[in-house]
Amino acid sequence: MSGGDPEIVHLPPGFRFHPTDEEIITHYLSKKVMNRSFSASAMGEVDLNNFLAERAKMGEKEWYFFSQKDRKYPTGMRTNRATESGYWKATGKDKEIYRGKNCLVGMKKTLVFYRGRAPKGEKTNWVMHEYRLEGKFSYSNLPRAAKVCRC
């Protein structure tokens, strides 16, 4: 990089960012949870509750980003997945993510976007994969400082 915007990263032609599920958990998500100021040039931060998928103007079909979970109720554990134009609905069974053969590091949940309000929303072709830490990386096993800024 030289001059200009320090946020712009110049990559060689043909470069694609396609991390494995295990790489997302161990190299990105766990570091973000441990250090809130951690940033990855290939991943931005998005507020999903105020982000409208229709307004996205990115050339790729896959995007990677961090998003802080919004709680449905202030004192509860349920996640709010509603947006201005619709909602994200979980589908299928969560997939276990392993490092090596026996080390569980995370889970992957698949969500589909529906326009409108539940339960009469209209299904779209927008699919999102949500990752969470498990095993030695799980929330209950993290240092107290990391729990304060849970992402």
Automatic annotation (TrEMBL):
It comes from the Eukaryota. Residues 11-151 form the NAC domain. One of its GO terms (cellular component) is nucleus. It holds the Pfam family NAM. GO terms for molecular function: transcription cis-regulatory region binding. GO terms for biological process: regulation of DNA-templated transcription. SUPFAM superfamilies: NAC domain (SSF101941). The keyword Transcription applies. Keywords: DNA-binding, Nucleus, Transcription, Transcription regulation. PROSITE patterns: NAC (PS51005). This is NAC domain-containing protein. It comes from Punica granatum. The lineage of its organism: Eukaryota, Viridiplantae, Streptophyta, Embryophyta, Tracheophyta.
